[in-house]
Write a sequence for this structure.
């Protein structure tokens, strides 16, 4: 990846983070930590890897992203708005009465959202169903799915892990947002997930482990997964930090955050400064 | 849509499962989007020979997920959003109780297009006993917005319903008896989903029922009552949701008393659905008696024993009919 491309993706990730803050700031609260932790993954997917058309969200040969950790809807909505799927102003309507922007991913309300999620574990199974359809059709489409590490405590995740391997879904790329924290605290203190790479390897998956905030590493891992057609589904375990990108968050205590206008301003200033620093280099 | 009721009703020489298999195979041949998903109970519905045949002829249309009903339902939802028309089967107890949230969120709430097939409804689970005996599956699915709940009566209706739901978009629950049902309808009959069928005319009360398990009991009950000079109208309410409110209200005003007969808990099943219509939309007092499982768990036993144990027999229905008639204002 050349420096220019890297900066472009990094800036896109910061722009997505700014929209997350905007959405939750406008509402006054939100699931901040787990939205910020996946912004770089989402930036690489919408900024570089996925085939899509904002003017035709149902385009026949599009790639598909399902965010199974449904509470990270605001992150996807930020990317979708920046790419023109929905008007930017809609971001200010998150979770208002009658909104077309419910914070948990909703395919019936938000163009570009492929699956309604929020009941953890289910989006990944639906992604397997979609990947199976694409796999049977041999249509070259890739299905991406993001799950949380807390979400991985759901038994349904491991049903789907078995299913995807059995069906040889090598067009399926799964990201584990391994931010090591969940609503009530550190994942290791609540229900330790141990070594993801070992687990997925044992289930017959093609595995990679990367820094989930390094856009270059994300792109490299996705490209490697796309090039591997050995009948194994792909998992990219992304080491991330819950609340990444703004300074006030504590990773084990930022699942849900209340916003004041002052806090919104502080966050946006930090993100603007980070964005400016990228081009100053 | 038109149906004809057989005058001479005898037990079918084919099982309900064989009818299901024949229609699924024909649908698969006609439309590559039609798929069947199993969770290791394919043998109980399709049977091993038909599974082998389908794998050979339509290898992309039958998926055995293994014993993972929750994943199966969400996978089916994902397939449906890619244009597939999946049927997803397990025992009724498992597709309802075990995969409730998957059917609700991945299915109904997400606007998916899945036909959930639940076999061995109610006491027909027989020797598998209480763990496998769903008296609450209709209650669960009836509470989902956008869910159609159908309990086919006989082989002719089953085939027609399977053909119809294959080409409809939405969420369906098909409550399916697996064995030989009583033949009620003439070959070639077609059925309108959401419209009750009139099986017998009568002016003293109306018995409203659904499904192959209760139908023989209901028909026999009407004969028992007729011998005593009580004439019962019989409505086959095979679509439990959306329920045919017009037929219920007409029955209430024209016959003045209602008995519901269901192979299910009386709580939030057919009886509740009928009572909701009459109490909120009826214009005169109409006594209702509910024959069904009186808020109990399942148990092991052969069908005849279980029908007696849960008071689902023709005699129970006839007794309820007399109580209902006796309560008329």
């Amino acid at each position: 990846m050349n420096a220019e491309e890297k900066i472009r993706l990094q800036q896109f990730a910061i722009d997505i983070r700014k929209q997350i803050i905007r959405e939750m700031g406008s509402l006054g609260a939100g699931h901040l930590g787990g939205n910020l932790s996946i912004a770089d993954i989402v930036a690489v997917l919408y900024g570089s890897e996925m085939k899509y058309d904002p003017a035709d969200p149902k385009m026949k040969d599009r790639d598909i992203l399902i965010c199974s950790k449904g509470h990270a809807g605001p992150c996807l909505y930020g990317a979708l708005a920046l790419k023109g799927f929905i008007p930017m102003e809609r971001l200010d309507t998150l979770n208002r009465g009658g909104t077309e922007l419910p914070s948990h991913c909703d395919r019936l309300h938000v163009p570009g959202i492929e699956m309604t999620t929020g009941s953890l574990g289910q989006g990944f199974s639906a992604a397997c169903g979609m990947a199976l359809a694409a796999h049977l059709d041999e249509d070259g489409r890739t299905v991406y799915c993001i799950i949380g590490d807390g979400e991985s405590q759901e038994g349904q995740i491991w049903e789907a892990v078995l299913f995807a391997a059995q069906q040889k879904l090598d067009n399926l790329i799964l990201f584990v947002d391994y931010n090591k924290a969940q609503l009530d605290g550190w994942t290791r203190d609540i229900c330790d997930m141990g070594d993801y790479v070992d687990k997925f390897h044992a289930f017959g998956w093609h595995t990679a482990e990367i820094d989930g905030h390094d856009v270059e590493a994300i792109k490299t891992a996705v490209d490697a997964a796309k090039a591997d057609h050995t009948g194994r589904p792909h998992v990219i375990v992304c080491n991330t930090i819950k609340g990444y990108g703004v300074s006030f968050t504590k990773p084990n205590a930022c699942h849900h955050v209340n916003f004041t206008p002052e806090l919104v301003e502080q966050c946006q200033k930090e993100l603007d400064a980070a964005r400016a620093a990228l081009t100053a280099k | 849509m038109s149906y004809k009721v057989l005058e001479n009703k005898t037990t079918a020489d084919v099982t309900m499962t064989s009818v299901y298999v024949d229609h699924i195979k024909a649908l698969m041949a006609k439309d590559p989007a039609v798929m069947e998903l199993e969770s290791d109970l394919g043998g109980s519905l399709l049977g091993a020979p038909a599974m082998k045949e389908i794998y050979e002829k339509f290898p992309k249309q039958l998926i055995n997920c293994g014993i993972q009903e929750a994943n199966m339902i969400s996978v089916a939802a994902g397939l449906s959003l890619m244009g597939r028309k999946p049927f997803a089967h397990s025992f009724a107890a498992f597709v309802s109780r075990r995969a409730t949230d998957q059917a609700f969120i991945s299915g109904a709430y997400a606007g998916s297009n899945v036909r959930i097939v639940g076999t061995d409804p109610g006491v027909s689970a027989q020797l598998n006993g209480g763990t496998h005996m769903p008296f609450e599956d209709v209650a669960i699915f009836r509470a989902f917005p956008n869910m159609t709940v159908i309990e086919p009566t006989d082989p002719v209706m089953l085939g027609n319903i399977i053909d119809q739901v294959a080409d409809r978009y939405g969420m369906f629950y098909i409550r399916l008896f697996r064995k030989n049902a009583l033949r009620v309808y003439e070959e070639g009959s077609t059925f309108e989903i959401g419209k009750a069928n009139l099986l017998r005319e009568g002016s003293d009360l109306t018995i409203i029922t659904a499904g192959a398990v209760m139908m023989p009991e209901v028909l026999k009950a009407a004969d028992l009552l007729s011998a005593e000079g009580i004439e019962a109208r019989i409505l086959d309410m095979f679509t439990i949701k959306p329920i045919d409110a017009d037929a219920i209200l007409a029955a209430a005003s024209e016959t003045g008393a209602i008995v519901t007969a269901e192979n299910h808990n009386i709580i939030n099943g057919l009886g509740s659905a009928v009572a909701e219509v009459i109490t909120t939309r009826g214009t005169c007092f109409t006594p209702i008696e509910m024959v069904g499982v009186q808020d109990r768990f399942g148990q092991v036993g052969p069908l005849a024993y279980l029908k007696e144990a849960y008071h689902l027999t023709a005699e129970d229905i006839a007794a309820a009919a007399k109580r209902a008639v006796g309560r008329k204002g």
User: Anything to note?
Assistant: The longest strand of chain B covers residues 258-265. Chain B has a mean pLDDT of 98. Chain B has two domains: 12-182, 197-321.
